[in-house]
Fold:
Amino acid sequence: MVERDRGLALLAHAVVMVGIAIVAFPIYLAFVASTHTSVAIVQAPMPLLPGDNFLQTYRDVLFGGGHGAVSFSPVGHMMIVSLTMALIIALGKIAISLLSAFAIVYFRFPFRTFFFWAIFVTLMLPVEVRITPTYKVVSDLGMLNTYAGLTIPLIASATATFVFRQFFMTVPDELVEAARMDGAGPLRFFKDVLLPLSKTSMAALFVIQFIYGWNQYLWPLLVTTTEDMYPIVIGIKRMIAPGDAGNAWNMVMATALLAMLPPAVVVVLMQKWFVKGLVDTEK
Structure:
């Protein structure tokens, strides 16, 4: 029995290693391409070992410069725009969802259930479906090329509201009664009881919503027309010229790798909280 279990463990590890290799190999190729010149990359066969152009490529990418069919704006500034946008969206979604779920669960008002389902139904109306009227509103309010225009239309989240509502409904009524007997009002109960209990759920949702905000492409493409407000995803697209024009693929690959770093860092640093928030049922 022990030998058979050991064989299954070895097989499982082998499968995992093969899967990691399949996923990691394109990333490795992108890194190798970012360390060579654009001329060396297009040679056949493409080099499979890192070159000596690493520092020059990443310096040009982060601070602007480079050569190719299109101009290269500083990717460092694009990363700041993307980071600001992702943080505002993630924190805004969590804050609004916490308050809306708190109101729906702990306050009694007419049509409470109707309003909850009205929020939930918005899952069927993503930004792509309502993009034309949303753009018209943002344009009329003068929010093009602003962080408000980039984030406010994306800041509401029916999914997060549903998650917090389901969690609040599992909180024992004894806690509510105890807080009321101690003289705690609704906001005090929300701040001192519900928020500490919701930390793992907030952490899990923060990771998901941060990646969601960081990877936004279509909406920023519409509401930004100046380079100083381009997020990094838009920057990658603008680095690739259409047709047969020569592209500086080393800089494109370097930018793609830099775009992967912040989401990867967030996932790694918050992995424990993320998993706990998704699977822990003993609140």
In short: The mean pLDDT is 85.
